[in-house]
Automatic annotation (TrEMBL):
<dbReference type="GO" id="GO:0008270">
    <property type="term" value="F:zinc ion binding"/>
</dbReference>
<dbReference type="InterPro" id="IPR046960">
    <property type="entry name" value="PPR_At4g14850-like_plant"/>
</dbReference>
<dbReference type="Pfam" id="PF14432">
    <property type="entry name" value="DYW_deaminase"/>
</dbReference>
<dbReference type="InterPro" id="IPR032867">
    <property type="entry name" value="DYW_dom"/>
</dbReference>
<protein>
    <recommendedName>
        <fullName>DYW domain-containing protein</fullName>
    </recommendedName>
</protein>
<dbReference type="Pfam" id="PF13041">
    <property type="entry name" value="PPR_2"/>
</dbReference>
<dbReference type="GO" id="GO:0003723">
    <property type="term" value="F:RNA binding"/>
</dbReference>
<keyword id="KW-0677">Repeat</keyword>
<dbReference type="Pfam" id="PF20431">
    <property type="entry name" value="E_motif"/>
</dbReference>
<dbReference type="InterPro" id="IPR002885">
    <property type="entry name" value="PPR_rpt"/>
</dbReference>
<feature type="repeat" description="PPR">
    <location>
        <begin position="436"/>
        <end position="466"/>
    </location>
</feature>
<feature type="domain" description="DYW">
    <location>
        <begin position="648"/>
        <end position="744"/>
    </location>
</feature>
<comment type="similarity">
    <text>Belongs to the PPR family. PCMP-H subfamily.</text>
</comment>
<feature type="repeat" description="PPR">
    <location>
        <begin position="468"/>
        <end position="503"/>
    </location>
</feature>
<feature type="repeat" description="PPR">
    <location>
        <begin position="130"/>
        <end position="165"/>
    </location>
</feature>
<dbReference type="Pfam" id="PF01535">
    <property type="entry name" value="PPR"/>
</dbReference>
<dbReference type="InterPro" id="IPR046848">
    <property type="entry name" value="E_motif"/>
</dbReference>
Amino acid sequence: MRCPTTRACFVSIRSFSSSNLLPALAGHEPNDLLNEVRLLSSRGQLHQALSLFYNSSPQLHSLQTYATLFHECARHGYLQQGLRLHHFMLAHFPSCTSDLFVTNHLINMYSKCGYLQYAHQLFDAMPKRNVVSWTALVSGYAQCGRSVESFRLFSDMLAERDCRPNDFAFTSVLSSCDYLCGKQLHALVLKMGLGASVYVTNSLITMYSKGYKVEEAWTLFKSLSCWSQVSWNSMIAGFQLAKLGMHAIGVFVKMHHEGIGFNRATLLSVFSSLCGSNGIDINLGLKFCFQVYCLSVKTGFISEVEVATAFMKAYSELGGDVSEFYHLFLETSCQDIIFWTSMITALAEPDPAKAFFLYRQLLQEGLTPDLYTFSIVLKACAGFVTEQHALAIHSQVIKAGFEDETVLRNALIHAYARCGSIALSKKVFEEMGCRDLVSWNSMLKAYGLHGKAKEALQLFPQMDLKPDTATFVALLSACSHSGMVEEGLRIFDSMFKDHGIIPQLDHYACMVDILGRAGRIVEAEELIRRMPMEPDSVVWSALLGSCRKHGETQLAKTAVSKLKQMEPENSLGYVQMSNIYSSGGRFNEAGTIRKEMDGSGVRKEPGLSWIEVGNQVHEFASGGRHHPQREAICTKLQGLIGQLKEIGYVPEISLAMHDIEEEHKQEQLFHHSEKMALVFAVMNEGKLHGGGNVIRIMKNIRICIDCHNFMKLASGFLQKEIIVRDSNRFHHFKDNICSCNDYW
């Protein structure tokens, strides 16, 4: 079992002096030690409390003192301290092992720290159990996402004589169960007369919302005789999960008018409701976003980094200029590390360069980055073409003494992989002394992103932690990128059978993609029909991509219809359908689709590519328009095209004209953005990162067949490795071969 990630757990409790406390306890009773331990713990000084305990006379150690310390270890997630305390107790107070009160606290501690196997062993060894024993273990499994075990244990609890589940037991099992199990629990709640419990009802509302049954959640909410803050929060979060932003806003407005106070959780749900495809009018959304921001400032919640970050994200997604609030904060807010970090967080994904600029500004202001700041900056580094920014931050992390922090090592694995260096990701992973689930998932995802499914499947059995839903998304994605259909099917089937994990939307989307890409579209369609939840836009997009690849026009129409309903402003359905018609020679139908798209005001995202030369990022659109060296680049490109034609390059003109990601004019075929970026890199070979042996290109949409063929031949002709990161995956071109084996 690997050690927990909390840095504090490596701090020896002997490092805290208790000499100033021991004299006060000399000659006193056990209650005196208990009261002192409780006082220190209430102040957050657990290490001092433990030091005092270990240096005191064993005669002062009581069951209540042990229970208090186990409780605090559970609350802070300090597994190593809890283990040591448990061993100390066994050595000095062995009779405690039969005490129900202390054992319950032990089970709770190990469960809260994710050490479920040991918690269950203690539970099984108990000569007598009560509702607290059962509930602690049920809650532990639920908190670790092991819903099947949690539900099974709760069912076993019902069979116990004189062990009636209480409110907390129900809320625990409801927090992780699926819709079908939740319905059964709801019936039991009513049968046992717990329907009036506000805690249980709030959990039921959340359960229905997570199961995308928001209508049932709303009915339950309205049936309450009185609403607590948690009730309102649960309903707002429910509408947010269902992407019903206006409904969430309406509930918040009513909550505010009723005089119910809000908290951090309320604001996070409200700001999240303003993001994405939530049916929010832009102007109304911006106005409301600013109003909620003012409330956040008035109540002081804006000083919390999560709230500030959620606001920035919502405001920027609604089209607001985050720089406006940059100046506003500079004038009116305390410019601390939380403010800077929230600003960087808001920009990390949409504008990595600006986020990195703010980080440099932070340093110039004399502020010291903390662990969270470094993790966010590394997230921004993942958006750059090369790994040089991530390497720079990595060195600063080491200098700051955070090199052993698991959170930052996980961020480094992600950043290096997204910048095209799977070797650096692997190096960081292998050097980790303490890995958590995110570490394993990040490495699995990195392998999949680079088309290394075999390496991902070899790594998976080495995991020493229970896999979660994200683990299987990473594995299935890896199989999808490499065409490993049978392996993907086996992994999907093993999720519930071997690991007790119920497949969610992301897993079904991966399976539809795996089957569809391989031409097994009928099976993909059947899988969608058997899904226990409504397919989302990702599922239908996966099916549509497969239909386009294999020319399945009728099924494509169904997928497009669904996409238009779910995301009316997304051009994907229109463009894919137009290309399917064009590929089949049905140009009239293709033209009709294009006219419908124009009439709806939907615009296709233009194809762009980026390359880093020196310390500057250059952006290229089709034809190199707006680039100051356009003419020289085009001349050089024409020469390269001629040379590649001599060794077998044949332009895929028909496909390029109708490809979803490419501009649809023949004269632009040779001037696609990634070709322009490649030639510009060759022209500036001496300024490339790493000496020019590797050319790295980033593209915002999927690479087309023509450019893919072009890059393969160019890699051999130029004797360079060309790494292209498109919207879907990485392509490593070397010696006329691509790492994807032409399967993408």
